[in-house]
Amino acid sequence: MKIADGIELWNQTVDRLRTEIGDENAELWLKPVSAISLEGGVLMLKVPNKFFSDGIKERYQKRLISVLRDLSGQEIGIDFRVERDLTRVLPPSDPVPEASPQSDFPLSELNPRYTFDSFVIGESNRLARATAESISKSPGTQYNPYVIYGGVGLGKTHIMHAIGNAIRRHHPRSRVLYTTSEQFVNEFIAAVQNNQIDSFRSRYRSLDCLLIDDIQFLIAKDRSEQEFFHTFNALFDSRKQIVVSSDRSPKDMSPLEQRLVSRLEWGFVADIKPPDLETRIAILRKKAAHEGFTAPDDVILFIASSVKTNVRALEGCLIRLKAFQAMTGAPLSVDDARDILKDSIAVDDSSPVRIETIQRVVALKYSVDVKDLKGHQRTVSISMPRQVAMYLSCVMTELSSTDIGRAFGGKDHSTVLHARKKIEKKIEEDPFFLELINKLQADIKTAER
Ligand code: ADP
Ligand code: MG
To answer: How far is CA 293 from the centre of its chain?
Structure first.
């Protein structure tokens, strides 16, 4: 078939699909796509970037193939080629944009304390920080989009603010926005309600750098997610910098989260790991100096070796010791520190918890009795919390499924495994349920102190 046939076929396909998916979706998803060839039973489509091909595959691939079959009377596959429209990708001749300085867009405040200088470099964060710094020098060029992964309290937000602060310093007139995905969702919802969607869009799309923190909050908010991708796309196409963070690594994400994040990964990805001992000591020293607090070396070492997985918790310990010292005026010993910090240190501990604690916390959460969890009642209001408690017992204790079954009123180990599977599935399918489970885990750890 000739190219012209491909174009014609595509146009007809779009027309047909438009009636099914509605004008808005057709404009968003199909309009920017054009046919470039039809060869060997494959219709090659040109898309502006990978975001489109992924989005179309996910949403419309099946329908497209069947409409193509209907219209052409043969099996036709589709393939995508990312082809940037060169007329639109102008060289960044003027990196300092002449932005309209007075707009009513409240660019959220950047924390001036979160800078590259105040960020301690270690093996765990070297790449993430170096990339961030080079982005701040020439935003929108090499590392775009930039995705930062890392557990809670490891410095993602710090680095994002540092990028923003540095860009503003290098390019004082550029429009940098730091926001969380939660804020983005709320603003979007408000804009929809107040009929201000156009101004919402134009404000976001006039940015030079968009920093979106904790992207995981966008999952399962379908319209907001779409809106984010369109914002993303508009910015990306005009070579504006986008930086996104997520508190889970892809392997710890639910499929929904993975879907969201994998779309961003064609830019540049760096992860931040928990800092090693040396880095933890350096962070504590820096923080202590900043706070004008002289902590003895052995106390610093004690904190650094007790709190391993969260820099925020590390800093929290220091602040508490400082407050204690200010109160007593006496020099701090390691024993004092151990005593003052025993609570904080327990929370950081990933050691197993007791099954009684799990049962107690879960029962409280679901307003049932612990003895119900151990009983045999099968109503959902009881069996659900029971399964949740069994699941948590599997992942938070070192007990075998046989032991766990025994602790739940003498149930069989296969009952425990069934509960575990069921809850795992639910976690995968439902991000809100995942949040609930995470929260329960945190509560259990706290209760275990
Ligand atoms: P996240 O966003 O990853 O949860 P934050 O960026 O909020 O973590 O960091 C938590 C705290 O730890 C902040 O006060 C931050 O300044 C500090 N912090 C984290 N990593 C470092 C580091 N490498 N050097 C100095 N401070 C750090
Ligand atoms: Mg953060």
So the answer is: 34
By the 8 A CB rule, do 10 and 35 touch?
Answer: yes
Q: Is residue 315's pLDDT more than 70?
A: yes
Helix (H) or strand (E) holding 351: none
pLDDT 10s digits, 400-440: 889 999 999 999 989 999 999 999 888 877 777 887 887 88
Inter-residue contact 352 to 396 (CB < 8 Å)? yes
* Closest CA to ligand 1's atom 6: 155
Atom of ligand 1 nearest to the CA of 119: 24
**Phi/psi zone of residue 104: left (φ > 0), alpha (ψ -120 to 50 degrees), beta?**
alpha
DSSP line for 279-308: HHHHHHHHHHHHHT----HHHHHHHHHH--
Q: Quick one: residue 88, left, alpha or beta (phi over 0 = left, psi -120 to 50 = alpha)?
A: alpha
pLDDT in tens, 335-388: 999 888 876 675 555 667 899 999 999 999 999 999 999 999 999 999 999 999
Pocket (CB within 6 angstroms of ligand 1): 114, 118-120, 125, 150, 152-158, 283, 311-312, 315
Looking at the CA of 113, which ligand is closest?
1
How far are the Cα atoms of 194, 391, 396 from residue 385, in angstroms, in the given order? 40, 10, 16
Nearest ligand 1 atom to the CA of 118 is: 25
CA distance 266 to 262: 8
Q: Which residues contact 36 (CB under 8 A, 6 or more apart)?
A: 3, 6, 44, 45, 46, 81, 83
Pocket probe mutation, ligand 1, options 161, 180, 312, max atoms within 8 Å of Cβ:
312
Measured in whole angstroms, the distance separating CA 121 from the mean position of its chain's CA atoms is: 22
Distance 432 CA to ligand 2 centre (A): 19
User: How far is the centre of ligand 2, averaged over its atoms, from the C-alpha of 214 (Å)?
Assistant: 7
